[in-house]
Amino acid sequence: MKKIKEIKQPIAAHLKEFNKVYKASLRSNTPLLDIIMRYILKSKGKQMRPIIVIYSAGLVGDINPTTYRAATLIELLHNATLVHDDVVDDSYERRGKFSVNAIWRNKVSVLAGDFLLSRGMLLAVENKDYKILEIVSMAVKMMSEGELLQIEKARKLDIDEAVYFDIIKRKTASLLASCFATGAISAGANEDMVEKMYEIGENLGMAFQIKDDLLDFGEGNNIGKPTGIDIKEKKMTLPLIYLLNNSTTQEKRQFINIVKNHSEDKQKVDWLINRVRHSGGIDYAVKIMNGFEQDALNLLSSFPENNSQHMLKEIVRFTIDRKK
User: Fold this and answer.
1) What does the pLDDT read at residue 284?
2) Which CATH code, of 1.20.120.530, 3.40.800.20, 1.10.600.10, 1.20.1050.10, is assigned to 4-321?
3) What pLDDT score does 223 carry?
């Protein structure tokens, strides 16, 4: 598996151009907003989504200024959702640093997130990138619906597999699907190609979220120890759903009671995690994740072979093999 540095290296010049557009889009004449935007810029992550946009353009055509704008729109949206998520989750840490709401509190954070969203939309409108804006706007809609559906279901804990897949398709997969599709659009891909690229991203997004579920159970992470954060946040993940589907009514009631009423009790959460591991829930989730991974790789293989195709496959593998 290639490391992120190796994945970035072939498109270093393109990432430099993207970062120019992205940095320019964050500028504001409002002093407080400008300070917050510079703080967000300093704490950038791996920038995996812009990388996917750029390689997706390279897969079907030439990387060009529209590609950099598409990558910027995606990154603005992504960071807007992170800022808003930290407010919703009362989280005070992001990428090893204080989150925006930890420093400037919730009201300012919500407005900063709104600014990021509006900058992305304006960038697309100003350059008449309407198809790219349509796909990204649809992702915003789906992500909001997925988050609200998860909150609603967390109250009753009545999530079955179909509902779980619906939630993660909206909440996680829609944005990664947009990365592949907008990259392809920016390079002039036809509608069939764009649809296929969207499907690749959707499969990768589904696999990505299941991998997150598995990491919370300690599967494949650096120390092999579960965190149980999803249980504490009353999130129904695929390994846990598998356990519930393969338990008696009495056992199911006991497990749900722990999630609903004792999610802060470490001993009970650890016991539940142990039951999930022994139920075959981890193996089942790995099998489903690998299926989505293979679907993404098969679809990528249907495109003509080039360096972008090779690197997108590496990104798919990186997503599945990551340790955090």
Assistant:
1) 97
2) 1.10.600.10
3) 45
